[in-house]
Amino acid sequence: MEVGQREYKLRGGRIMLFTRATDRYGFWQCRLRLGTERTLVRRSTKTTDLAEAKRTAEELYDELSYKKRHNKLLKDRTFRQLADDYIRKAERDTLEGRLSEGRLELVAGTLRRYLLPYFGKRLINDITTADFNDYDDWRLDYWTRGYGAARKTANAKATPSAKTLMIEQGILRQVLKYGIELGVLKQLAFMKPKKAKTNRRGAFDAREYGLLIRTARRRTRNERHTRVKRDRQMLELYIRLMAGTGLRVGEARGLSWRDVEFINTGNGKQVETLRLWVDGKTGKRAVIGARTARQTIKKLLEFYGYRNIDEARLNGGGLFTKTSGDAIHTFEVGFRTLLNETGLELDRHGKRRTLYSLRHSYATFRLLYGGTDIYLLARNMGTSVAMIEQHYGHLRTTLAADKLI
């Protein structure tokens, strides 16, 4: 025993109370030996009073002995501690390319704003189904009269959509499942799966898409202002590329010429094919473009004055840039103006179309006219077969029309 250190034994030596010589305040620590195994648990009693330390240590010993007899974890973690571990894992996955930066940002933001304020201090093995249900009520009031009322941000909806709640539940489930993998969570309490309404985002049919492109070309041709003419021409090329690849808007925003290449494919017969390397919500992947997308890239080469793809990859920056060379952040305003002029703002169900409608149009065209296998389409679009079925399963009736007449 070091000079200045004190020790007391309780319960026949199964409880050892001691102070550390280096602790100038003299807080009592306890070391507990549980059962017949050599299982040691060390805790602080958080007091300098010996009588109170004895009482605290004996209560802790009885509590942990009960847990051990009933095969319960001796040491529990708070949700915040588990979430911190999960974020560190997600950051490693991002560095190693298994998780996109966008997904990491979504997970970290959801934990910081919603899940940690509610679950943060709770022990993970004490979280119950009732807590999940109570969280839903708390979350619905978050921005209006709840925790976030004084922190309202410009882009936050007052009431979250079913899709948003479903995404947040998925992140909560991932964190808790990670606790099971680490062996610190015994079991996941029942969490009723949330379902969001399928949002098909109003695809364009072939006639509507043709009208969109013709109008975009006419607006470019009739424009006299040099900068506006350039912007309109670039918007047309952007629309063509999106409808020919099915890229997400965020994926297209980050494209540079280094991400573009032409490869030769085909069995025996060499076919020039466009391949794009994108980094999106599902991580990095290769995207094969349709013929229209390949033609669009060649028009972009002409637009920038590059002789070939190699020159563009060597000297070019972003795929869609302003005259200053800065990347164009969004085409939303120009696209909305184009929709208004063509009368295509709303789909047949009255839903407003957005740039994301071009991704849905790509999938629709591939299934209806390209005969693309659903599995290959899912891989190319960076989604799951289940999501393709959910969003585009209604096309099966059309595809099987010849069997229904």
* CATH-derived architecture of the largest domain: Orthogonal Bundle
* Residue-averaged pLDDT: 85
Shape: elongated
Distance between the termini: 93 Å
As for the number of domains, it is 3
Unreliable segments of 5+ consecutive residues? none
In which range does the helix fraction lie?
40-55%
- CATH superfamily annotation of the largest domain: Intergrase catalytic core
Q: How would you characterize the overall build of this protein?
A:
It contains 16 helices and 7 strands. The chain has 405 residues and is an alpha+beta fold. It folds into 3 domains: 63 residues; 104 residues, DNA polymerase, domain 1; 199 residues, Intergrase catalytic core (hpI Integrase, Chain A). Strand 5 and strand 6 form a beta hairpin. Helix 6 packs antiparallel against helix 7, helix 7 packs across helix 12 and helix 13 packs across helix 14.
Task: Draw up the topology in text.
Elements: E1 7-10, E2 15-18, E3 29-34, E4 39-44, H1 50-69, H2 79-95, H3 101-119, H4 129-140, H5 162-182, H6 206-222, H7 226-245, H8 249-253, E5 260-265, E6 271-280, E7 283-288, H9 291-304, H10 309-315, H11 332-342, H12 356-368, H13 374-381, H14 385-392, H15 396-399, H16 401-404
Antiparallel strand pairs: 1-2, 2-3, 3-4, 5-6, 6-7
